[in-house]
Write a structure and sequence with these properties.
heterodimer; A: mainly beta; 6-stranded mixed β-sheet; 12 strands; B: 4-stranded antiparallel β-sheet
Chain lengths: ~120, ~120
Amino acid sequence: AQKITQTQPGMFVQEKEAVTLDCTYDTSDQSYGLFWYKQPSSGEMIFLIYQGSYDEQNATEGRYSLNFQKARKSANLVISASQLGDSAMYFCAMRDHQGAQKLVFGQGTRLTINP
Amino acid sequence: ETGVTQTPRHLVMGMTNKKSLKCEQHLGHNAMYWYKQSAKKPLELMFVYNFKEQTENNSVPSRFSPECPNSSHLFLHLHTLQPEDSALYLCASSQGASEGTDTQYFGPGTRLTVL
């Protein structure tokens, strides 16, 4: 069974610093996709970035990048130059490529950006 | 309206009430999803619909009854709920492709309280 582990329940970072949110995963599938979502206090889950298991380069989207280490089964999210608006819950999720549409989510990390 | 919308945003109901949650997507997607997010638990997939057909029911109790009249609308009918059903209910949509790159986009959620 697939499993996502986020070991950091909470993180506190100074504004403008870079921050890394950890995510490790467990799967027996060779082909899978990894996602990161942001959930502000308003509740909406906002898609941030995607990484496919066969992608050779780390995904990047603006200030977000994904540090993908396949052998270690880790997919850490890096946010550069953090902003106050980055304060939110962050969820790592996985989907296998076997046709199922189920996303498996981790427990999430609450990120707080201090001014 | 753009993206995925959900109404109502907040709902308080008694255990004997019947209510419905509504989700609408304006993204031209073919798949729609209901998720439940309880405090201190990972997001749980409840139902998946592809082209109006239910393709996954994640062992959800029958007091939750989904309805998908077309690819743009999804309802969750609620009756005789329990206090432990209090949670944030999130709707999502995606293209519905079988590839792992299929990204789910979420609505703002309905925060449900069962008294």
